Amino acid sequence: MENRKVFLNEHTNLLELEEHMYPLVDVDTPNVFRNLFRYDEIPKIAFNDRIVPHHMPDEIWITDTTFRDGQQSRAPYTSEQIVTIYDYLHRLGGPNGKIRQSEFFLYSKKDRDAVYRCLEKGYEFPEVTSWIRASRKDFKLVKEIGLKETGILVSCSDYHIFYKLKMTRRQAMEHYLSVVRECMETGVRPRCHLEDITRSDIYGFVIPFCVELMKLMEEYKMPVKIRVCDTMGYGVNYPGAVIPRSIPGIIYGLMVHAGVPSELIEFHGHNDFYKAVNNSSTAWLYGASGVNCSLFGIGERTGNTPLEAMVFEYAQLRGTLDGMDTTVITELAEYYEKEIGYKIPPRTPFVGKNFNVTRAGIHADGMLKNEEIYNIFDTDKFLNRPALVSISNTSGAAGIAYWINAYYKLSGDREVDKNSELVKRVKAVVDKEYEDGRVTVLTDEELIAKIDSVCKELHMTL
Ligand SMILES: CC(C)C(=O)C(=O)O
């Protein structure tokens, strides 16, 4: 009992009986949590009903991995594209630096050129950080380029330690600590990417390791960031779920038992089970200041947490955008489609072609009466994307006029009226389609073609 004492937990204000030492549990055989992860069965979510309190930090932010995890999973961006996207991220994050950092490869000359060009912009945010192989030579490179922080891979599950690195936990921990120390010796802030944390032994490896990292932080008087990597997307946010799958449980353990302050905890999610966004918001709610995201969720396999989604999560949780310019999201989507050739699936929230298009005639009717009925918020104001209705047999002249005005962004004098000749003629063509037996809604392309041909008949342009 010498190591145990009762103390007031500053996060919960509850008296707790706490073990002050979390020694490394150096097992002989890997703990791969077969009760939760049997490869020939669907992974399981178990509960022990231990409830973890909310602890949303005073300040929360987004960091970006578009050029690292994002780029890892697709054809490389050109330097020009990287610099352009970086510019957009700077504008999107706003003056308060809500998109705080972005991480860059330094492997090739092309990677480094992009970094130099982004640094030349002189923006405070997003701070340019790196991702490198963990070697003294690379730490020096980071320093020479003038970057202050680098990501270092410190995989923490026994899947990685035993099967990939072929090490014991002790060997892995000693190896990681020596690499982190070397990084700090070079004067570069380490950001430790705890890969596969949601399949790791939290109290047998992660907490003891993070306790040691916090000691290094003390020794070098330099922050050490802990990135909580839900590499396979196994994390869950259900109250009372057991670790290692519980994101609240992991964040709580890091804060309370390893003493990692919120501003040094960052969550990195993957979307394999459709949970990346919820897990990221959960990480914020339970004490991580940072969530690491990628534009449009582009990342390994099913992708990462979409950055644009967390902008709207931020606004919902904090009641303010704190200076973020959400219209840049639409500019970015257009840039990806037109310049990068990336096809955004049409139903993608906030950026897909159809994200705010109401199709059913009956819903469209509601939209015509008051667009709030079927639009999530003023998408025109925040995303330059007016709510649209699709056209079918039930749309009527008012529906067609609404569609034309919204699609062609006509307002004031340019707005078309439901009694205009254009609308009457387009309606006649549409009605004829349905009289002839059509049962589906008209696509945008079909409508545009019909409107174009009526415009030609009427010698007018929109
Ligand atoms: C490679 C690691 C750091 C990662 O991105 C992840 O764990 O998802």
TrEMBL record:
Q: Which residues form the Pyruvate carboxyltransferase domain?
A: 60-330
Which GO biological process categories is it annotated with? L-leucine biosynthetic process
The question of whether Manganese is a record keyword is answered with yes
| Pfam families linked to this entry | HMGL-like (PF00682)
UniProt keywords, alphabetically: Manganese
Q: Does the keyword GTP-binding apply?
A: no
Q: Which GO terms describe its molecular function?
A: 2-isopropylmalate synthase activity
InterPro entries registered for this protein in UniProt? 2-IPM_HCS-like, Aldolase_TIM, PYR_CT
Q: What is this protein called?
A: 2-isopropylmalate synthase
| Organism lineage string | Bacteria, Bacillati, Bacillota, Clostridia, Lachnospirales
